[in-house]
Here is the input.
Amino acid sequence: METTIQRYYPLGTRTLTTLIIKRCLFVIILLIILFIGLFALQYVSKENIEVALYAFLGYLMILLILTVLGVFIGWLEYSRYEIVLSDKSLKMQRGLISVEQVGIPYRYIQDIKIERSLLDQILGVSELMVTIAGSEQQEIHPGEGPGGNMHRVILPAIENKIAKQIQEIVLNRAQIQQIDISNREIFK
Here is the structure.
């Protein structure tokens, strides 16, 4: 039997951009506060303008540090984000400091859907939601889905083209493996 492994690493610039933007959303809020502060400077008395300018520069430095930190964390998350499709399983690796590795045999995969929030649509990325059946999978993702023993693994910020490829491949391999299992049982 021939082994086919498809490795998705790195996942593309849109994935990197999305992860950085999601890590830096708080910076946008701080920028809004900064602009409000700039308009409020006109109401500061001339005696206190120097103090206000130092506070403004301090706030600007904090904003710059938080932006660099957000970009670094987004890049770190991106550099450790990998998806591998082998003949028998879907494998995923992600994390910041500690790396989480998950392997899901195709026979446990019930469905794989593509979901896109408004931000995902703007950035051209998707979120893959893999639905897994079986009580053994509790350790893979400890959240219960809608159907009792159904669990979900989420693969965030994947470029649309790659997400559709992964969805098609996983669904095809999951169906092929299910057919093989049922055929083996019939012939025994």
